[in-house]
Automatic annotation (TrEMBL):
Record-linked InterPro entries: Cys_rich_dom (IPR004017)
Lineage: superkingdom: Bacteria
Domain Cysteine-rich: 3-84, 127-221
Name of the molecule in the record: (Fe-S)-binding protein
């Protein structure tokens, strides 16, 4: 199958190793992966700030770059959800619809499309899983704790097979970290306090690493950890799943 690798702006600019890990991971499972060099922002920051009418150029460019693939895979729940729910094209709506129906977050693609049940890897550390809001409540990557329903977690399912990894059970496992894109700029104090609370939960469980599927959330937590001079590190789930 032909897979187009969609890499979010902040990953491309600040954490390129996540894009590399995603590429290598998909290729391990036999995917023919391409990275369209002309891809740019999907338009989510503008849309979330109330300027969705300015994202037409982003949409057109996205369709031009990804319409030829069977699937589009992204190591980010928030960017995936934006494309899944908001991508349209006046010039080629059929192509936009194809992409919306076939764009997947990385762990979702591994579990739902490739049917991966376990991954060989080695990561001998105590890890806390931060489940981002878009991934959980938008893409349904894991069950919401307030529902009286059977628990599940696609990221945790994959992490459970990694050799040496001890996945802790957090006290408030699906609480928002406070990043929220431009929210962390317009409501800085609230955003920081929410992030501090999330970090405290991980500290109480003595984790070595905080992982997750959205580097934007992890970047927010990483900034707080650095200011606290904490020894806890952040790492994207793709890097753990691609470990040897």
């Amino acid at each position: 199958m032909k897979v187009g690798l969609f890499i979010p702006c902040y990953v491309d600019q600040f954490y390129p190793q996540i894009g590399i890990a995603s590429l290598e991971l998909l290729e391990k499972f036999g995917c023919e992966v391409s990275f369209p060099m002309d891809q740019t922002c999907c338009g989510q920051p503008m849309a979330n700030s109330g300027y969705s009418h300015l994202t037409a150029g982003c949409d057109t460019n996205f369709v031009n770059n990804f319409s030829e693939f069977d699937y589009v895979v992204c190591p980010s729940g928030s960017c995936t959800m934006h494309v899944k729910e908001h991508l349209h094209s006046k010039e080629n709506e059929a192509a936009a619809t194809h992409i919306r129906n076939n764009v997947y977050e990385l762990t979702e693609f591994l579990t739902d499309i490739l049917k991966v049940e376990s991954i060989e890897g080695n990561f001998p550390y105590k890890v806390g899983m931060h489940q981002s809001c878009h991934g959980q409540r938008g893409l349904k990557l894991s069950q919401m704790s307030e529902l009286n329903a059977a628990p599940f977690s696609k990221p945790n399912q994959l992490l459970s097979s990694i050799k040496g990894l001890e996945l802790v059970s957090l006290s408030r496992k699906d609480e928002c970290c406070g990043f929220g894109g431009t929210f962390c700029v317009t409501e800085e104090a609230v955003s920081v306090k929410m992030g501090q609370d999330r970090i405290e939960d991980h500290k109480e469980h003595h984790v070595d690493y905080i992982t997750g599927g959205d580097m934007s959330c992890l970047m927010h937590l990483e900034g707080i950890l650095r200011r606290q001079k904490s020894n806890i590190k952040v790492i994207h789930i793709a890097e753990i799943l691609n470990s040897i």
